[in-house]
Automatic annotation (TrEMBL), chains A, B:
It comes from Dioscorea zingiberensis. The lineage of its organism: Eukaryota, Viridiplantae, Streptophyta, Embryophyta, Tracheophyta. The keyword Lyase applies. This is Serine decarboxylase. Its cofactor is pyridoxal 5'-phosphate. The keyword Transcription regulation does not apply. GO terms for biological process: carboxylic acid metabolic process. Keywords: Decarboxylase, Lyase, Pyridoxal phosphate. Belongs to the group II decarboxylase family.
Amino acid sequence: MVGSVVDVSLMDPCEKVEALPREFDPKEISCPITSEANGVVEENGKREIVLGRNVHTMCFTIDEPDADDEITGEKEAYMASVLARYRKSLVERTKHHLGYPYNLDFDYGALGQLQHFSINNLGDPFIESNYGVHSRQFEVGVLDWFARLWELEKDEYWGYITNCGTEGNLHGILVGREVFPDGILYASKESHYSVFKAARMYRMECVKVGTLISGEIDCADFADKLQLNKDKPAIINVNIGTTVKGAVDDLDTVIKTLQENGFTDRFYIHCDGALFGLMMPFVKRAPKVTFKKPIGSVSVSGHKFVGCPMPCGVQITRLQHINALSRNVEYLASRDATIMGSRNGHAPIFLWYTLNRKGYRGFQKEVQKCLRNAHYLKDHLRAAGISAMLNELSSTVVFERPKDEEFIRRWQLACEGNIAHIVVMPNVNIEKLDNFLNELVQKRASWYQDEHIQPPCVAAEIGEDNCDCVLHKN
Amino acid sequence: MVGSVVDVSLMDPCEKVEALPREFDPKEISCPITSEANGVVEENGKREIVLGRNVHTMCFTIDEPDADDEITGEKEAYMASVLARYRKSLVERTKHHLGYPYNLDFDYGALGQLQHFSINNLGDPFIESNYGVHSRQFEVGVLDWFARLWELEKDEYWGYITNCGTEGNLHGILVGREVFPDGILYASKESHYSVFKAARMYRMECVKVGTLISGEIDCADFADKLQLNKDKPAIINVNIGTTVKGAVDDLDTVIKTLQENGFTDRFYIHCDGALFGLMMPFVKRAPKVTFKKPIGSVSVSGHKFVGCPMPCGVQITRLQHINALSRNVEYLASRDATIMGSRNGHAPIFLWYTLNRKGYRGFQKEVQKCLRNAHYLKDHLRAAGISAMLNELSSTVVFERPKDEEFIRRWQLACEGNIAHIVVMPNVNIEKLDNFLNELVQKRASWYQDEHIQPPCVAAEIGEDNCDCVLHKN
């Protein structure tokens, strides 16, 4: 049951200086989880996931300094060597990265001076703490910017800078539960896993709703599920860009479905805008994410479209909900409505810096560029006879999973079953895409030179129209 | 009900360039919360906390760049000016900080080169992700170090680097609840508020246990409470250093109490070692925190004793619990047993760097220095006729709350009712303490020059022996 364990002590002693971060075995990484090496045990046909220590992990050990280290400088030299090699590997990996929605193109050189300080935004951004080394004044500036973007007045919103998209979802769903303690959580099956994690953590009843081929929530199925649970309020997670297909749930149809099924005000909507929450406002024809509609909260990641050295995010909700929440927390003796309490004070400054430099107009330009480049990628894949799909409002190109795991690893593609995806971010330019396309077309010629080996059919995942398998190609 | 709101647009337009982070009003900050300005409304004698937007917050606004900004360079100049002033205020505040247990003495210059990368440790540290820009190899090195410190074998532990002490508590208590779904959470009333937040989030029954004057859990009261709930398993939060008094719950007595009351194995112990989890192993005579005792998890903060630019922490638990947990998470289709999912990849490198440089011996020396300096501070306070207490195993000096709020603000002291505390960290040297003592003694002479105004009695908080008020002084 317990996975394999690394005995680092068996490693070549030289290795701790020499080794680069181990290149991983893609069999271990792609979802869905299908191999035992990956921590999954098939037992009586039932998949069981075994967490932790399932994979041989490369590790930079920490050794007790020798008594004479300060004189010999050996320790310093060892550490400098590890760091230099690590840095080199990061450069290499950043260059070839395509699979995750992280904007790796940023320059925060001007902020390097702040790394010497232990900046901690304890608790509520709007209530001062007596720890003086904080960055609340940057945080509130960033929050105001996002509240304006999503059209909520300054005196009507509350929010904070989170550690990541997951914390935003955890917070939004918690607020929903506090507003409707017996509410049922509805989320499409293509929602981020943190949504289902929240349901489990919070002991909430959770109903999974089906999706369309595009990855959007299927509102017909949603209506059916609502009908089965008419007596309880509904808490809904609406995806503004799903993880795999970049699908945007139709907020207007979700609201209409609620109302048509008798949920006139017994509902709370959390919008998981991890990636597209910041892009959608700049896409023409996109259904608008705005607090002028009856939504309760929106979260977005800061390290994705904006770009940031570490994960972070923004959570905005209605002040009235937080005040309602606060009436119940007296026994906490705390004015802290955040999940984490202590919070990274550097992240708000990174975000403040980029938002100030780029502004709404800057982001609009970047969004347009990403959508253009995504279309370029999709069109060139299809022109090369490769199955591919691109949702209208998305920069996530879903395509046939490359046959060679080395290739997947090299480009750090996220895969699920027979499909892979590339999220076209501001740092992904035409040149990078051309390099990728050329390499893929060339490799593919060798993978499929034997006529008996055919590319997979992906009609089930992305629809017949987008599938170029031997059965569906026109 | 809704607190006051800042209309930033009303600010002097020059202010956005000129203003330093506003000095806060200490009336707003000290616990317990007692004033309306502080977001608390007394209604029918019932205290109600109103969260968010209760305090006028200084904010650095984000303005849309002008079309010609790139040519004029005005925007860059504005931002550089804000950052330079902010940096100056951080230097000043770092210099005078005494109230929070953060080691502000670190030099991570060698790691500045890594700020250019978006380092993200997605999910389980022991399972590779296909996002290549991670620092798992550092993270696992740090985790191994802590597992060794707390005596858990490499193949028997699981853990991860968290965003802060709160995340460690949230995780430890969640694991406890998954092991005993109908367990009751017991925590002393001086536990960190995140423990009670967890109970609320997780919908757990929670029983508060009384404390001794020292701040330690009162095991007689604990026994009584256990007797009232004999039918349900116990999940216990044990404090290895409480927030206010730095009190260390006696782990051995807690275990004995459980066993004497019939809880032979129906219990789960989480040790909240936010600060002292890393110091205790180096204190002679301290009851040992070790997995050789029947504990389930230990958490510690990384930005406290180690020192780190941003909050972070370490969570170590038994692998068997995580595997038990995993059997229940199939529907998550996730191998992620962390709370946060996306995690800051820089924090592990900071910790790795310091642990490698200092080693166990280095920390031992620092712990001894802190305890010595804490005794120095306590002795000098008492010699000056000032009420003060120092727990035997602690570096947190609790003393009479200074009368002048300006003084509290200047030294960033955390206060609660009539007491304040100073946490003596490695960056707090004798010189800094002497400066503080001299200033306090001098100020005090003026605060209490009028005989009718007397220092407060703090016997209720720290005991008669430690109280130097007019009634209790010998």
